[in-house]
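Progress report, Aim 2. The chain analyzed during this reporting quarter is listed below.
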Amino acid sequence: MEELSLHYSHSGYVRLLRRFGFECRKPVVRPTVADEAKQAAFIAMYDSLLNALAADETVCFADAVHPEYQSKPAFGWTRKGTKPAVKTTAGRKRVNIHRTLCPENFDAPWSL
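Predicted C-alpha cells for the chain:
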C-alpha cells in the first residue's frame, strides 16, 4: 500500500464524501428481537456440554462489562438512499457486571 501525502480540511472531507455518494444521517432506532433459533441452538449445546462433564468439573460464566441498555444513535456518514438502523432495548442506562457465577449452585467463586 502506498501512502499519498494528501491532506484535507474538514470541509474538504465533507465534499469528498459527498462526491463518493455519502451523506450524514442519523440511524433509525429499532427494537431488538430475540432470535429463537439461536437460543434453542445454545440451549442444546449447553445441555450436551453439561451431560459430558466429569464429576469434578463445573461450568461457570464470567462477565466484566458495562453495557448500556439504551443505544444512543448519532450522526455518521452512509451511502445516499440507505437508512441505517441501530437495535435498542428498553431499560436502565447502564449496569456493571463483575462476577463469575456457577449456574448449578449459584456459587460465585471468583470476584473479578
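The chain has a mean pLDDT of 80. Strands lie at 22-25, 28-31, 61-65, 76-79, 85-88, 97-101. These observations will guide the mutagenesis work planned for the next reporting period.
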